[in-house]
Amino acid sequence: MPERIQLRYPAKYELRSMLHFIVHGMRLTIALAIVLMACASPTIQPPTQTAQATKGIGSSAAEINAALATIATQTALPSADYQIGPEDLLQITLHNIPEATSYQAQSSPIASYRVTPRTVTLRVSQQGMITLPLLGEIRVLGSTSAGLEQELRNRYDKYIYNPDVGVLVAEYRQRVSVMGSVQKPGVFELSGPKTVIDILAMAGGVTERAGTQVHIYRQGAKGRESYVIDLLVLASNARLINADNAGLITMPVQAGDVINVPLAGTFFVDGAVKSPGPYPLARRYSLTMALATAGGVDRELYSSDISIFRRQGSGMENISLDLDAILAGSAADPQIEADDVIIVPISGARYFVKRFVGQLFSMGGITPPIAGS
Question: How many of the other CB atoms lie within 10 Å of CB of 95?
Fold first, then answer.
C-alpha cells in the first residue's frame, strides 16, 4: 500500500507542472504575437471623437432659431403694403359726396350742395369680391389699400366730381398655413403685414428634427409658385444679413400661403460604434462628424475599411473608404447624404484579442495591448 502511494504523488506533481508550463508558454507566445502586430501597424488615433468633430454639430435647431431672431432684428418691416384677401373687413369712405337741401337748391343752384362723407363697411368674399353702390362687384383680392383707393377714384369719377376715397382694412382675416418641423404647426391669422420670418416665429421656430430648408407654396396669378429658403446659409451668415440682402426670409406672406419645414433626412450607423442606430441629417455632416454623432468608433473593435451604402436610383452603391487615411488627412472626408448607411466593420484580429485573449490574460491579471494603440 505505501509503495502505491509513493508512485501516484510524483505523477500528479509532474502533470500540474507540465500544464503550468504550457499555459505560461501560450501566454508568452500570444503576447509576442500581439506586440509584433502592434509594431507592424501605424499608430492612428481612432475617432472616439469629440472635440473637433462634435464642435461643429451642436444644436442645429437652436442655431437656426437664433439666426432667425438675429435677422429679424436687423431687417426692417416689409416695404410692400398689405394685400387684401378673403374675409378681410374693409371700411370704404367717400369723403366728398354732394348733398343738397331744398332751400339751397331753390335759392342758389350753384352753391346748393354741401359735402358729406359716406362710409360703408364690407366683408371681402372668398372669391375676393366686394359690392359697392353705383359700381357693383369689384375684385379686390391682392390689392393694397392705396391701389384700391386709386381704382375707386377712377370708377367714381363717372358719378362724382373729383371723388375723394379712403380705404381702411378694419379687420384682418387672412390665413397662412405652417406645417412640418415647427414647434406649433397650424393655421395662423394675419393681423397686418407679416413676413416669412414672422410666421416662423409665430409657429415657435423649427424643431430638432427640422431639415435645412423652408418651402413656400403660393397660388399666384400664373398658377402655383414655389420658393425655397436655405436655413443653413442664413444661420452661417446671420450677422451679415440686412434689409437689402435678406432675400426670401423677409418676403411678405400672402393669404393662402403654405409654409413647410420638411423633416430632416436620416442616416444610419452600424457596426463597431458606441451608439449604432438612425440619426437625423439636420445639417451637413461629414463621415467623421456622423461617426462622432454615433458616439465614435469602438477603438478596441473597429476596422478601418468603412463602407457607405448610398441609394442610387433603384439600387444601392457601396462606397469603400479608409477611415485611418481620412483621419490622417491623406483622404477626403466625404459628405453624408440622406438615407446613407454607414457600416464600421469589426476587425477579426481585434475582436479575437478583446474577447478571447483578453479573458485569458485577465486570469493572470494582465491587460493585453491593442493593435494600433
Answer: 13
Query: How much of the chain is in helix, strand and coil states, percent to nearest 5?
Result: 35, 30, 35
89-171 — its CATH code? 3.30.1950.10
Write down the pLDDT at residue 291: 92
How far is 80 from 17, CA to CA, in rounded Å?
96
pLDDT tier at 142, thresholds 50, 70, 90? confident
The ranges of the chain annotated as CATH 3.30.1950.10 are: 89-171
Could you tell me the fold of the domain covering 61-82+174-261? Outer membrane lipoprotein wza fold like (3.10.560)
Q: What is the pTM of this model?
A: 0.56
**Distance separating alpha carbons of residues 99 and 195, to the nearest angstrom:** 44
Distance CA 265, CA 270 (A): 17
Our CA angle for 127, 133, 137, nearest 5°, is 20
Q: What is d(CA 307, CA 323) in angstroms, rounded to the nearest whole number?
A: 10
Pairing of strands 89-100, 113-123: antiparallel
Residue carrying the nine cell digits 446671420 = 238
Residue bearing the bigger pLDDT, 73 or 188? 188
The CA distance from 331 to 57, in Å, is 21
Rounded alpha-carbon distances, angstroms, from residue 215 to 1, 175, 177, 281, 289:
99, 17, 12, 17, 27
